[in-house]
Structure prediction request, 270 residues.
Amino acid sequence: MPYLTQLADVARRTGHPVTEVAGWKTRGHGPQPEVQGLVCHHTAGPAGGGDYPSLAVVRDGRPGLAGPLSQFGLGRSGRIYVIAAGRCWHNAPSTSPLHDNSSSLGIEAENSGGQPWPEVQREAYVRLCAELCREFGLAASRVKGHKEVNTAKPDPHSINMNDFRAAVAAIIGGTTPPQPSWTEKIVRELPMIGLGDDNQDVKTVRGCLFARGQVPAAAYASVPNGLRGWLETALCDAGLVTLIRNFQQAQGIGVDGIVGPVTWPTLLRV
Ligand SMILES: [Zn+2]
Prediction:
């Protein structure tokens, strides 16, 4: 098998955003010999730090293990990072001959190893596996968690792989999912906002919450310049997280204090 230069196109069929990491088409420990299985991982990276802070490690490796470590990265926002088209060091030793490095592709999803999985990331995870199964003619049973094919590994944590495979099978057996609308695509491009983030998009969250009548006067009573000062604060602090949670509760959506792909549309009313 040659280098798998179709992987970015396969990833785009999920409907989730895709980043082609520079040089991916020729990156690998030689070409990928065959694709008989898929192995799902978590990065065990930092709990914060943006969408895919483990990119450099997965691409370049770490002391004692040269990169690339997997063909795909999966960000917290559901963004798919296409990192390598050749063989990667993601599963050795393997208890399954269909899931060793020469026989399988790896997906390293950003997660500290203990934190909850954002819904959109799980959805993208299932869809990416389903599209890869379609591309390489694999049954959903060929999708394995690292913890299933390497007894020393815990990843991907807290994901029931039987449920995961059932979701993959449902997509493989179904029709091609509808393409997202342009507004949905825009929303998917928006960054996730949570505690500690400090950027212009935090101001947008503040403005939207205010426009929705979700900002009581007490929230900005002690802020210099009052409401104006509050709206122009770029830091997502604990007070703002509380208002986000209140808004999510009022809207009947998951209460996690993070503005992501589920909360943004509600906030923007798209
Ligand atoms: Zn792993």
Q: What stands out?
A: The longest strand covers residues 37-42. The two ends are 44 Å apart (CA to CA).
